[in-house]
Amino acid sequence: TTKIIMDCDPGIDDAAAISVALNNPALAVKLITTVAGNVTVDKTTKNALKLVHFFNKKVPVASGAEQPLIKPFEDAARIHGESGMPGYNFDELVGDTVKHTAMEALYQTIMKSPEPITLVPTGAYTNIALLLATHPEVKPKISRIIAMGGSLGRGNMTSAAEFNVYTDPDAAQIMYNSGIPIVMIGLDVTMKALLTQKTLNTVGTLGEAGNMLASIFKHYYEGHEGGIPMHDVNTICYLLHPEFYQTARYWIDIQTSGPAIGETVADIRGAYHLGNTNAQVAVGIDADDFNQWFIEEVQNMKT
Ligand code: BDR
Ligand code: CA
């Protein structure tokens, strides 16, 4: 099994990514940390706890950064609903977070692990930047970071910027400069791997987990035609099925100010960084593979 830590802001697609990861026996989720993003961190934390409880798991949840390092916080509640996970009646009596902050919990979990751990951030990278700045000795113990965020093309928050990177561009810059191997799962693939209406209908018939996911997806669907993106789920899909994805290596820099703030700039000519690269960027995926895989994952979920 691959040991992973999910750093997230659930969030409808984060919730789907967590659901898959908690249920797939090839993955061992050692810790879930939360960050402000789609909604405030008190809400993303509550949502993470609700999911762990829903699936009857014992995964610790640690609450993280309330706001980005420098940039003022702007949420995405208009897309993810006021709660961040609307449309399903989750149990309100969920467990508690661990006492440590996300940064401390990340540090301890990574240092205690006998083998290196994979980090899977699906929100802004604030907790990870704080961790790397405060405890740089963790770096060799992180095997790689599979991060949802960024785009080689257009953004979804501004013309230039994707939401997670836009939310905390300074954190993104720290993460991309860390020297840790990074896989960038950006809009270049997540806007291709759309879940079709047919898949959504099927998911709704697949037990209580399917019902839960279909219920929270409804809210998301309102804003999208021709299928809904499941951005964050692509991190887990890549982890389990890298063969589904075409990738290319680039050096990625982050715009941290100006009208293109939050843009992920790839050194496409290779000239600026002398041919060096800091990321493996996912650039292509077949939507049918993704839809079929997702249905199978939901089929295997146990509540
Ligand atoms: C990213 O932004 C968030 O709204 C989603 O959860 C995803 O992580 C997509 O741009
Ligand atoms: Ca997210």
TrEMBL record:
PANTHER family: INOSINE-URIDINE PREFERRING NUCLEOSIDE HYDROLASE, NON-SPECIFIC RIBONUCLEOSIDE HYDROLASE RIHC. It holds the Pfam family IU_nuc_hydro. One of its GO terms (biological process) is purine nucleoside catabolic process. The keyword Ligase applies. Keywords: Glycosidase, Hydrolase, Ligase. Its EC number is 3.2.2.1. It comes from the Bacteria. It comes from Pediococcus damnosus. NCBIfam families: PRK10768.1. GO terms for cellular component: cytosol. GO terms for molecular function: ligase activity; purine nucleosidase activity. It is an enzyme of class 3 (hydrolase). Residues 4-291 form the Inosine/uridine-preferring nucleoside hydrolase domain. This is Inosine-uridine preferring nucleoside hydrolase.
